[in-house]
Amino acid sequence: MSRLGRTGKGSQLAGPRKTAIKLAPPPEAIPAQATAKYRRVFEYLHGHIQSGALKAGDRLPSEAELGKLFEASRITVAKAVLDLQRMGLVTRRPGAGTHVLAPHQLQGRTFGLLIPELGLTEIFEPICHGMMRSAFARPDALLWGNAASNVGEMAKEAEQMLSSFIRQKVAGVFFAPLELSGDKDAANKRIARDLERAQIPMVLLDRCYLPYPERSAHDLVGVDNRRAGYKATTHLISLGVRRLAFLGEASAAATVDARITGFYEAMRRFGVTAAHDPVWRGSPLDEAMVRRLLDTVRPEAIVCANDLTAARLMQTLIGLGVRIPEEVRIVGMDDVKYASLLPVPLTTIHQDCAGIGMVAMATMLERLEHPELPVRDVTVPTSLVVRKSCGAGLAAKA
Question: Is the preceding peptide bond at 374 cis, omega within 30 degrees of 0?
Protein backbone atom coordinates (compact mmCIF):
# COMPACT_ATOMS: atom_id res chain seq x y z
CA MET A 1 0.00 0.00 0.00
CA SER A 2 1.26 3.46 -0.84
CA ARG A 3 2.19 6.04 1.76
CA LEU A 4 -0.85 8.10 0.77
CA GLY A 5 -3.19 5.16 1.21
CA ARG A 6 -2.18 4.81 4.86
CA THR A 7 -2.83 8.45 5.77
CA GLY A 8 -5.20 8.91 8.67
CA LYS A 9 -5.88 5.22 9.42
CA GLY A 10 -6.83 4.16 12.92
CA SER A 11 -3.74 1.95 13.32
CA GLN A 12 -1.76 5.12 13.93
CA LEU A 13 -3.83 6.27 16.89
CA ALA A 14 -1.94 6.72 20.14
CA GLY A 15 -3.62 4.61 22.79
CA PRO A 16 -7.29 4.72 21.75
CA ARG A 17 -9.70 4.68 24.65
CA LYS A 18 -12.70 2.36 24.51
CA THR A 19 -14.80 4.57 26.77
CA ALA A 20 -16.02 7.89 25.37
CA ILE A 21 -14.98 11.05 27.19
CA LYS A 22 -17.87 12.70 29.01
CA LEU A 23 -18.08 16.32 27.90
CA ALA A 24 -19.44 19.18 29.96
CA PRO A 25 -22.74 20.57 28.70
CA PRO A 26 -22.50 23.46 26.22
CA PRO A 27 -22.33 26.83 27.98
CA GLU A 28 -25.75 28.24 28.79
CA ALA A 29 -24.45 31.69 27.87
CA ILE A 30 -24.78 30.74 24.20
CA PRO A 31 -28.48 30.82 23.24
CA ALA A 32 -29.61 27.71 21.38
CA GLN A 33 -30.82 29.83 18.46
CA ALA A 34 -27.77 32.12 18.28
CA THR A 35 -26.30 30.04 15.48
CA ALA A 36 -27.08 26.89 13.51
CA LYS A 37 -27.03 23.73 15.62
CA TYR A 38 -24.48 22.23 13.25
CA ARG A 39 -22.08 25.11 14.00
CA ARG A 40 -22.66 24.75 17.75
CA VAL A 41 -21.76 21.06 17.66
CA PHE A 42 -18.76 21.61 15.37
CA GLU A 43 -17.32 24.55 17.29
CA TYR A 44 -17.81 22.84 20.64
CA LEU A 45 -15.99 19.66 19.61
CA HIS A 46 -13.36 21.59 17.66
CA GLY A 47 -12.68 23.78 20.70
CA HIS A 48 -12.26 20.77 22.98
CA ILE A 49 -9.77 19.19 20.57
CA GLN A 50 -7.75 22.37 20.13
CA SER A 51 -7.65 23.07 23.87
CA GLY A 52 -6.53 19.53 24.69
CA ALA A 53 -9.67 18.66 26.64
CA LEU A 54 -10.06 15.90 24.04
CA LYS A 55 -6.67 14.23 23.62
CA ALA A 56 -5.22 11.92 21.00
CA GLY A 57 -6.97 8.55 21.16
CA ASP A 58 -10.02 9.83 23.06
CA ARG A 59 -13.32 8.56 21.74
CA LEU A 60 -16.01 11.17 21.12
CA PRO A 61 -19.49 10.67 22.53
CA SER A 62 -21.81 8.84 20.17
CA GLU A 63 -23.97 10.73 17.70
CA ALA A 64 -27.00 9.89 19.83
CA GLU A 65 -25.32 11.32 22.94
CA LEU A 66 -24.25 14.48 21.13
CA GLY A 67 -27.73 14.85 19.66
CA LYS A 68 -29.24 14.72 23.14
CA LEU A 69 -26.65 17.17 24.52
CA PHE A 70 -27.37 19.75 21.79
CA GLU A 71 -31.01 18.85 21.11
CA ALA A 72 -29.97 18.20 17.49
CA SER A 73 -30.75 15.48 14.96
CA ARG A 74 -28.23 12.74 14.25
CA ILE A 75 -27.88 14.08 10.71
CA THR A 76 -26.81 17.46 12.11
CA VAL A 77 -24.32 15.85 14.49
CA ALA A 78 -22.95 13.58 11.73
CA LYS A 79 -22.31 16.62 9.51
CA ALA A 80 -20.27 18.32 12.26
CA VAL A 81 -18.23 15.16 12.93
CA LEU A 82 -17.67 14.63 9.19
CA ASP A 83 -16.17 18.13 8.89
CA LEU A 84 -13.81 17.37 11.79
CA GLN A 85 -12.81 14.22 9.94
CA ARG A 86 -12.21 16.15 6.71
CA MET A 87 -9.93 18.50 8.64
CA GLY A 88 -7.89 15.51 9.79
CA LEU A 89 -8.78 15.99 13.47
CA VAL A 90 -10.67 12.73 14.03
CA THR A 91 -11.03 9.32 12.44
CA ARG A 92 -14.11 7.12 12.33
CA ARG A 93 -13.69 3.36 12.73
CA PRO A 94 -16.62 0.99 12.15
CA GLY A 95 -17.65 -0.59 15.42
CA ALA A 96 -15.14 1.46 17.44
CA GLY A 97 -16.55 4.99 17.24
CA THR A 98 -14.88 8.30 16.41
CA HIS A 99 -11.44 9.03 17.90
CA VAL A 100 -9.20 12.10 18.07
CA LEU A 101 -6.09 11.70 15.93
CA ALA A 102 -2.61 11.65 17.42
CA PRO A 103 -0.62 14.93 17.30
CA HIS A 104 1.83 13.66 14.68
CA GLN A 105 -1.10 13.07 12.35
CA LEU A 106 -2.07 16.75 12.55
CA GLN A 107 1.10 17.81 10.77
CA GLY A 108 0.27 19.42 7.45
CA ARG A 109 0.59 17.80 4.07
CA THR A 110 1.78 19.47 0.89
CA PHE A 111 -0.38 19.57 -2.23
CA GLY A 112 0.54 20.64 -5.74
CA LEU A 113 -1.47 23.14 -7.77
CA LEU A 114 -1.16 22.28 -11.46
CA ILE A 115 -3.07 25.15 -13.06
CA PRO A 116 -1.40 26.19 -16.33
CA GLU A 117 -3.86 29.07 -16.80
CA LEU A 118 -3.31 30.58 -13.35
CA GLY A 119 -2.93 34.30 -13.96
CA LEU A 120 -4.37 34.03 -17.48
CA THR A 121 -7.96 33.03 -16.64
CA GLU A 122 -9.71 34.87 -13.82
CA ILE A 123 -11.61 31.98 -12.28
CA PHE A 124 -8.57 30.12 -10.94
CA GLU A 125 -7.19 32.79 -8.63
CA PRO A 126 -10.35 32.85 -6.45
CA ILE A 127 -10.46 29.04 -6.58
CA CYS A 128 -6.93 28.97 -5.09
CA HIS A 129 -7.89 31.55 -2.49
CA GLY A 130 -10.85 29.36 -1.55
CA MET A 131 -8.51 26.44 -0.98
CA MET A 132 -6.16 28.48 1.21
CA ARG A 133 -9.00 29.97 3.28
CA SER A 134 -10.70 26.62 3.79
CA ALA A 135 -10.77 25.37 7.36
CA PHE A 136 -10.18 21.91 5.87
CA ALA A 137 -6.77 23.01 4.56
CA ARG A 138 -5.18 23.79 7.92
CA PRO A 139 -2.33 23.08 8.40
CA ASP A 140 -1.76 21.91 4.84
CA ALA A 141 0.41 23.77 2.30
CA LEU A 142 -0.07 24.44 -1.41
CA LEU A 143 2.73 24.51 -3.99
CA TRP A 144 2.53 26.05 -7.43
CA GLY A 145 4.95 27.30 -10.04
CA ASN A 146 4.99 30.10 -12.58
CA ALA A 147 2.34 29.89 -15.29
CA ALA A 148 3.43 29.97 -18.92
CA SER A 149 3.17 33.38 -20.55
CA ASN A 150 1.69 31.97 -23.78
CA VAL A 151 -0.54 29.09 -24.85
CA GLY A 152 2.23 27.40 -26.84
CA GLU A 153 4.39 26.90 -23.73
CA MET A 154 1.63 25.72 -21.39
CA ALA A 155 1.96 21.98 -21.95
CA LYS A 156 5.74 22.02 -21.54
CA GLU A 157 5.60 24.14 -18.38
CA ALA A 158 2.81 22.01 -16.88
CA GLU A 159 4.73 18.76 -17.36
CA GLN A 160 7.89 20.27 -15.87
CA MET A 161 5.89 21.45 -12.88
CA LEU A 162 4.39 17.98 -12.48
CA SER A 163 7.87 16.40 -12.46
CA SER A 164 8.80 18.73 -9.60
CA PHE A 165 5.68 17.75 -7.63
CA ILE A 166 6.43 14.05 -8.08
CA ARG A 167 10.04 14.52 -6.93
CA GLN A 168 8.80 16.36 -3.83
CA LYS A 169 6.32 13.54 -3.14
CA VAL A 170 3.32 15.82 -2.69
CA ALA A 171 0.28 14.27 -1.01
CA GLY A 172 -2.01 15.13 -3.92
CA VAL A 173 -2.39 17.35 -6.98
CA PHE A 174 -5.18 19.74 -7.97
CA PHE A 175 -5.20 19.81 -11.77
CA ALA A 176 -7.02 22.19 -14.13
CA PRO A 177 -6.56 20.50 -17.53
CA LEU A 178 -5.02 22.45 -20.40
CA GLU A 179 -7.25 23.98 -23.06
CA LEU A 180 -6.83 26.01 -26.28
CA SER A 181 -3.38 24.64 -27.13
CA GLY A 182 -3.30 22.19 -30.03
CA ASP A 183 -1.56 19.42 -28.05
CA LYS A 184 -3.74 19.78 -24.95
CA ASP A 185 -5.38 16.34 -25.18
CA ALA A 186 -2.11 14.42 -25.39
CA ALA A 187 -0.49 16.55 -22.67
CA ASN A 188 -3.46 16.16 -20.31
CA LYS A 189 -3.42 12.39 -20.74
CA ARG A 190 0.33 12.24 -20.06
CA ILE A 191 -0.11 14.25 -16.87
CA ALA A 192 -2.91 11.97 -15.65
CA ARG A 193 -0.88 8.86 -16.52
CA ASP A 194 2.21 10.13 -14.65
CA LEU A 195 0.17 10.92 -11.53
CA GLU A 196 -1.43 7.49 -11.62
CA ARG A 197 1.96 5.82 -11.95
CA ALA A 198 3.28 7.85 -9.01
CA GLN A 199 0.14 6.87 -7.02
CA ILE A 200 -0.58 10.52 -6.26
CA PRO A 201 -4.31 11.35 -5.91
CA MET A 202 -5.65 13.99 -8.30
CA VAL A 203 -8.68 16.25 -8.01
CA LEU A 204 -9.72 17.91 -11.26
CA LEU A 205 -10.70 21.57 -11.10
CA ASP A 206 -13.45 23.00 -13.31
CA ARG A 207 -13.26 20.37 -16.06
CA CYS A 208 -12.34 16.87 -17.12
CA TYR A 209 -9.47 16.30 -19.54
CA LEU A 210 -11.46 13.85 -21.67
CA PRO A 211 -13.91 15.03 -24.37
CA TYR A 212 -17.46 15.63 -23.15
CA PRO A 213 -19.36 13.52 -22.14
CA GLU A 214 -16.55 11.02 -21.45
CA ARG A 215 -15.36 10.84 -17.85
CA SER A 216 -11.97 10.08 -16.28
CA ALA A 217 -11.36 8.01 -13.14
CA HIS A 218 -10.64 11.04 -10.94
CA ASP A 219 -12.74 13.31 -8.70
CA LEU A 220 -13.89 16.55 -10.32
CA VAL A 221 -15.07 19.74 -8.61
CA GLY A 222 -16.74 22.49 -10.62
CA VAL A 223 -20.19 23.53 -11.78
CA ASP A 224 -22.88 21.80 -13.84
CA ASN A 225 -21.92 23.30 -17.19
CA ARG A 226 -24.78 21.71 -19.10
CA ARG A 227 -27.23 23.29 -16.69
CA ALA A 228 -25.39 26.62 -16.94
CA GLY A 229 -25.76 26.63 -20.73
CA TYR A 230 -29.42 25.72 -20.35
CA LYS A 231 -30.02 28.47 -17.79
CA ALA A 232 -28.40 31.21 -19.90
CA THR A 233 -30.32 30.18 -23.03
CA THR A 234 -33.64 29.83 -21.21
CA HIS A 235 -33.26 33.37 -19.86
CA LEU A 236 -32.93 34.77 -23.37
CA ILE A 237 -35.87 32.72 -24.65
CA SER A 238 -37.96 34.04 -21.74
CA LEU A 239 -37.25 37.56 -23.04
CA GLY A 240 -38.79 36.66 -26.39
CA VAL A 241 -35.60 35.81 -28.31
CA ARG A 242 -36.02 33.18 -31.05
CA ARG A 243 -32.91 33.55 -33.23
CA LEU A 244 -30.02 32.38 -31.09
CA ALA A 245 -26.34 31.63 -31.61
CA PHE A 246 -23.62 30.15 -29.41
CA LEU A 247 -19.97 31.24 -29.73
CA GLY A 248 -16.92 29.54 -28.23
CA GLU A 249 -13.21 29.35 -28.98
CA ALA A 250 -11.85 26.44 -30.98
CA SER A 251 -9.96 23.79 -28.94
CA ALA A 252 -11.74 24.91 -25.77
CA ALA A 253 -12.19 22.68 -22.73
CA ALA A 254 -14.90 20.02 -22.38
CA THR A 255 -16.89 22.49 -20.27
CA VAL A 256 -17.76 24.40 -23.45
CA ASP A 257 -19.19 21.26 -25.06
CA ALA A 258 -21.32 20.71 -21.96
CA ARG A 259 -22.58 24.30 -22.16
CA ILE A 260 -23.42 23.80 -25.84
CA THR A 261 -25.44 20.71 -24.87
CA GLY A 262 -27.43 22.84 -22.42
CA PHE A 263 -27.90 25.47 -25.13
CA TYR A 264 -29.41 22.90 -27.51
CA GLU A 265 -31.59 21.41 -24.75
CA ALA A 266 -33.16 24.79 -23.98
CA MET A 267 -33.90 25.41 -27.66
CA ARG A 268 -35.45 21.96 -28.01
CA ARG A 269 -37.58 22.27 -24.89
CA PHE A 270 -39.10 25.59 -25.94
CA GLY A 271 -39.49 24.68 -29.59
CA VAL A 272 -36.92 27.15 -30.92
CA THR A 273 -35.62 26.06 -34.32
CA ALA A 274 -32.74 27.36 -36.42
CA ALA A 275 -32.39 27.54 -40.20
CA HIS A 276 -28.59 27.28 -39.85
CA ASP A 277 -26.30 25.66 -37.28
CA PRO A 278 -26.39 28.14 -34.38
CA VAL A 279 -23.12 26.93 -32.77
CA TRP A 280 -19.95 28.68 -33.98
CA ARG A 281 -16.36 28.01 -32.91
CA GLY A 282 -13.66 30.62 -33.47
CA SER A 283 -12.06 33.77 -32.15
CA PRO A 284 -14.53 36.53 -31.20
CA LEU A 285 -11.83 39.00 -32.28
CA ASP A 286 -11.99 37.65 -35.83
CA GLU A 287 -14.08 40.38 -37.45
CA ALA A 288 -14.64 38.41 -40.67
CA MET A 289 -15.91 35.37 -38.75
CA VAL A 290 -18.23 37.52 -36.62
CA ARG A 291 -19.62 39.15 -39.79
CA ARG A 292 -20.34 35.69 -41.24
CA LEU A 293 -22.10 34.67 -38.05
CA LEU A 294 -24.28 37.79 -38.13
CA ASP A 295 -25.08 37.43 -41.83
CA THR A 296 -25.78 33.67 -41.66
CA VAL A 297 -27.69 33.23 -38.38
CA ARG A 298 -28.95 36.82 -38.03
CA PRO A 299 -29.04 36.27 -34.26
CA GLU A 300 -31.10 38.34 -31.88
CA ALA A 301 -28.85 37.06 -29.08
CA ILE A 302 -25.53 35.24 -28.68
CA VAL A 303 -24.70 32.95 -25.75
CA CYS A 304 -20.92 33.02 -25.18
CA ALA A 305 -18.89 30.12 -23.79
CA ASN A 306 -17.45 32.38 -21.08
CA ASP A 307 -17.09 36.02 -20.09
CA LEU A 308 -13.77 36.47 -21.89
CA THR A 309 -15.37 35.39 -25.16
CA ALA A 310 -18.32 37.71 -24.44
CA ALA A 311 -16.03 40.69 -23.72
CA ARG A 312 -14.06 40.17 -26.92
CA LEU A 313 -17.24 39.69 -28.96
CA MET A 314 -18.64 42.89 -27.48
CA GLN A 315 -15.49 44.72 -28.60
CA THR A 316 -15.85 43.38 -32.14
CA LEU A 317 -19.58 44.15 -32.37
CA ILE A 318 -19.07 47.70 -31.17
CA GLY A 319 -16.36 48.10 -33.80
CA LEU A 320 -18.85 46.91 -36.42
CA GLY A 321 -21.39 49.45 -35.25
CA VAL A 322 -23.76 46.84 -33.80
CA ARG A 323 -25.73 48.13 -30.82
CA ILE A 324 -25.86 45.96 -27.68
CA PRO A 325 -28.48 44.93 -26.62
CA GLU A 326 -30.79 46.75 -29.07
CA GLU A 327 -29.59 44.77 -32.11
CA VAL A 328 -27.77 41.80 -30.55
CA ARG A 329 -28.05 40.65 -26.95
CA ILE A 330 -25.14 38.91 -25.23
CA VAL A 331 -24.91 36.53 -22.27
CA GLY A 332 -21.63 35.21 -20.83
CA MET A 333 -20.64 32.66 -18.20
CA ASP A 334 -18.39 32.84 -15.11
CA ASP A 335 -19.16 36.36 -13.75
CA VAL A 336 -15.53 37.50 -13.66
CA LYS A 337 -14.58 40.75 -11.93
CA TYR A 338 -14.76 42.92 -15.04
CA ALA A 339 -18.16 41.60 -16.22
CA SER A 340 -20.02 44.55 -14.71
CA LEU A 341 -17.39 47.04 -16.01
CA LEU A 342 -17.64 46.27 -19.73
CA PRO A 343 -18.97 48.96 -22.11
CA VAL A 344 -22.33 47.22 -21.76
CA PRO A 345 -22.53 45.48 -18.34
CA LEU A 346 -22.64 41.74 -18.99
CA THR A 347 -25.44 39.37 -18.04
CA THR A 348 -23.74 36.14 -17.03
CA ILE A 349 -23.86 32.91 -15.06
CA HIS A 350 -22.13 33.36 -11.70
CA GLN A 351 -20.05 30.52 -10.33
CA ASP A 352 -18.79 30.52 -6.76
CA CYS A 353 -15.06 30.08 -7.42
CA ALA A 354 -14.06 30.37 -3.75
CA GLY A 355 -16.65 27.72 -2.95
CA ILE A 356 -15.17 25.45 -5.63
CA GLY A 357 -11.76 25.83 -3.96
CA MET A 358 -13.08 24.97 -0.51
CA VAL A 359 -15.00 21.94 -1.79
CA ALA A 360 -11.96 20.79 -3.80
CA MET A 361 -9.81 20.78 -0.67
CA ALA A 362 -12.46 18.85 1.28
CA THR A 363 -12.75 16.37 -1.61
CA MET A 364 -8.99 15.81 -1.68
CA LEU A 365 -8.77 15.20 2.07
CA GLU A 366 -11.71 12.80 1.93
CA ARG A 367 -10.07 10.94 -0.96
CA LEU A 368 -6.89 10.53 1.12
CA GLU A 369 -8.90 9.32 4.11
CA HIS A 370 -11.10 6.99 2.05
CA PRO A 371 -9.32 5.95 -1.18
CA GLU A 372 -11.99 3.30 -1.77
CA LEU A 373 -14.74 5.89 -2.39
CA PRO A 374 -16.32 5.93 -5.88
CA VAL A 375 -15.14 8.66 -8.27
CA ARG A 376 -17.33 11.76 -7.88
CA ASP A 377 -18.45 14.86 -9.71
CA VAL A 378 -18.98 17.52 -7.04
CA THR A 379 -20.87 20.52 -8.39
CA VAL A 380 -21.22 23.96 -6.82
CA PRO A 381 -24.50 25.80 -7.64
CA THR A 382 -24.59 28.65 -10.17
CA SER A 383 -26.89 31.65 -10.44
CA LEU A 384 -27.97 34.05 -13.20
CA VAL A 385 -26.76 37.66 -12.84
CA VAL A 386 -28.90 39.97 -14.99
CA ARG A 387 -27.28 43.13 -16.36
CA LYS A 388 -27.87 45.32 -19.40
CA SER A 389 -26.33 43.16 -22.16
CA CYS A 390 -29.23 40.65 -22.29
CA GLY A 391 -31.82 43.35 -23.02
CA ALA A 392 -34.02 42.56 -20.03
CA GLY A 393 -34.67 46.30 -19.71
CA LEU A 394 -35.84 46.40 -23.34
CA ALA A 395 -38.31 43.61 -22.67
CA ALA A 396 -39.64 45.45 -19.64
CA LYS A 397 -40.31 48.59 -21.72
CA ALA A 398 -42.03 46.67 -24.53
Answer: no
